[in-house]
Amino acid sequence: MRNRRRLVLLALLLPALLVQAADAPRTARTRISEIDPQTLPIEPIARVVADRDGDTVPDRKGEMVRVRGVVTIPSDVLRVESLQAAIQDETGGMGVFNMRESTPLAAGDVIEAWGRVSQFKGAIQLENARVRRVGRAALPEALALSAEEADGWKHVGRRVRVEGLAGAVTLDSYSMLRITGDDGIPLQLFVPAPIADGFDWKRFPRGTRVAATGVLSIYKPTWPFDGGFQVVLADAGDLQILQPPPPEWQRWFLPAVGAGLGIVALAGLMILLLQRRQRARDRELSTLSALSRAFADPDMGEERLAHNACEILVAYDIVEAASVHVFDDAGRLHRVAATVSDGRLNDSTPPAEGDDGTGGLVARLREHGVHVLALSPLPGTATPIGMLAALSARPRPPSQRQERTLLSAAKLLGMAIENRRIREAARREAEALHELVITDELTRLYNRRFLDEYLRVQLPLAERRGGGLAFVAIDVDHFKRINDTWGHEAGDRVIAGVAGQLRQASRGSDLPVRLGGEEFLVVIAEHEIDGALAFAERLRVAISSQAFEVAPGESLHVTVSVGVALFGVHGTDAAMLMRASDEAMYASKRAGRDRVTLSTTLPAISG
């Protein structure tokens, strides 16, 4: 016990030693004395001590800031020979500290302080702070809190008032009084050394109901700073007796009579509390585990991911209702999933129209009689991608367990949605790249590279089936004349128009290909020569009937020469069939163009 007291005493001196060590190399950081305070804007204390990521460390740690506030703990209370005090403004409170300064500050002094945001054992303060008095004001009204409310970060730095039953007292160069609130939560009252002598501790025996007014602070040796909250008193009058303890005979006689029952009851209560806490922790871990499993499927869509999150949060009794809202490109929130367990919320969950940011979402939920228990952002790569809303049928703050679980659920869901979007974008890019590789840029028909791959698969199948493929070669007649007369842009329009006719005439089993220039090939699923010739003739007529625009308000008709070769009749490999259809197409040109010709090439017979 004595060693622990000495550790706490050393902890009070440690901030100054750390500051002194940090200032040793003059070039390491800018000294406070070298800074013109007028260059720093006066900021609300709540903005300086904000911890938006919830890691119990202020987001602005290490920054130079300037604040204004009322002194709530004088400088001669925490440290006599140097500057250490607590201040508070309308938004929050914090400490100021400087080992080399000894500016006397009284309670009620209004000061401006500038220094570097620091943290010692969890308590947030301005280190190497410089101060200037600017007036006097009444002390901020103390906020009445339960012990459970005081055992957290929400009101740290503010003047508070707590009530409880006095317990153990630690006396040294400082004093600590442990009290227990009506909610059963223990809390420490810290009495600094300069005022400890003003207390008659015999007036505060165990069981005395007391009220303490002071500044809510924290003392925890290691990070994270999620425990060790205490109320620091500034004057002997800050500790008042509300009710004396029961008479001595009651304190000893009644416990002696009921000792056995008391022990059993205490043991049962401890077991119950431990089981309750363990169940709560197990439920929290089970919820996060279920969320992780629910987000593991890489093929799950965003709406399914959001729906799973809402279902699990409600099913595991974390919240009564939950909804997920995602930002669109215009910054409006759209609901993508919602789950409700409380019947009072069934008819009041708002529809999925867009909201102008989180403020619009909260306002619209209230219009439908829904209270927002918590609103957690879904983190994205740069900015939040949406919000996870925990809803309630009545206004109330969330518990610490709910806050932790909802924050973790929002992070998991945000990562799952972001990963889904990254995978989807990668898939689309891969498809687009693949499309560029296998298609012709002008006509969007398949190119020669894809044709080779297609025939590598289809020709062996045709050989096993005994046929079923025909090659139809197409060439635009007098295409050079079109380019020479109307220009290459007009030629490109004609090529694209012919390609459109090929796509329209082809069936799902056919493959239209641009070989290059004005040459095309359609590989069709056809067993009979008559069927292949009929397809080619329909294609020729369709192209010759089409008017192609070559300039604004001007169009022309073109014809094509077509050659047809059939698998098994004119060849069985790609080179032979393409040569046969190509020779037939040139035969059409020699015969006067604008016609279809069947190949006369016969495959060579070996042996």
TrEMBL record:
A Pfam family the protein falls into: GGDEF
InterPro entries the UniProt entry points to: Diguanylate_Cyclase, GAF-like_dom_sf, GGDEF_dom, Nucleotide_cyclase, Rev_trsase/Diguanyl_cyclase
Keyword Transmembrane: yes
Keyword Transmembrane: yes
Annotated signal sequence range: 1-21
Listed SUPFAM superfamilies: GAF domain-like, Nucleotide cyclase
Catalytic activity: 2 GTP = 3',3'-c-di-GMP + 2 diphosphate
Stored PANTHER family: DIGUANYLATE CYCLASE DGCM-RELATED, REGULATORY COMPONENTS OF SENSORY TRANSDUCTION SYSTEM
Lineage, broadest ranks: Bacteria, Pseudomonadati, Pseudomonadota, Gammaproteobacteria, Lysobacterales
Name the UniProt record assigns to this protein: diguanylate cyclase
